[in-house]
């Protein structure tokens, strides 16, 4: 399981000395085996085994919000958006493929985000990396 980091601080983390939300998302993603970070569409993005993107950071990419977009299993996006629209949304471009958007400019449930990122990774990672992940657990 990836680390969940520090308690919530200001969204940018700078005033409290805490990591920024980007640093926290990055740490969660890069803790996964074979994860690579690259810029995609102008934003930091994370790839399982260097091939398939499973998450991307969205710093005012399509609106005035800071968020993380993750791949998600069928039905998860609809459920989360319906039950907590203040925290979750259907992101542009990839929302039609079931991805979930998580707002990061409000208090973040970091353990839940870590679970979403882990599930996104499992959906996209090659079998050898999923096996490596299961050996680490």
Can I get a quick summary?
The chain is of the alpha+beta class and 137 residues long. 31% of the residues lie in helices and 23% in strands. The N terminus is likely disordered.
What does this structure look like?
- It is a single chain.
- The chain is of the alpha+beta class.
- It has a single domain (21-129), classed as Aspartate Aminotransferase, domain 1 (Alpha-Beta Complex), CATH 3.90.1150.30.
- Helix content is 31%, strand content 23%.
- The protein has helices at 21-30, 76-83, 110-124, 127-136, and strands spanning 35-40, 43-48, 52-59, 66-70, 88-89, 100-103.
- The protein has a 6-stranded antiparallel beta sheet.
- A hairpin with a 3-residue loop joins β2 (43-48) and β3.
- The longest helix has 15 residues, at 110-124.
- The protein is globular.
- 30% of the residues are buried.
Q: How many separate domains make up the residues? A: 1
Shape: globular
CATH top level? Alpha Beta
Strand order of the largest sheet: 1-2-3-4-6-5
Do you know the CATH architecture? Answer: Alpha-Beta Complex
The helix/strand series, from N terminus to C terminus, equals HEEEEHEEHH
Structural class: alpha+beta
Describe the sheet with the most strands: 6 strands, antiparallel
Q: Find the CATH topology.
A: Aspartate Aminotransferase, domain 1
Give the helix proportion (percent range): 25-40%
- Rounded to an integer in angstroms, the radius of gyration calculated over CA atoms is 14 Å
**Number of contiguous helices:** 4
- Runs in which pLDDT lies below 50 for 5 or more consecutive residues are 1-13
State the end-to-end distance: 7 Å
| Strands, total number | 6
Mean pLDDT: 87
What share of residues are in beta strands? 15-25%
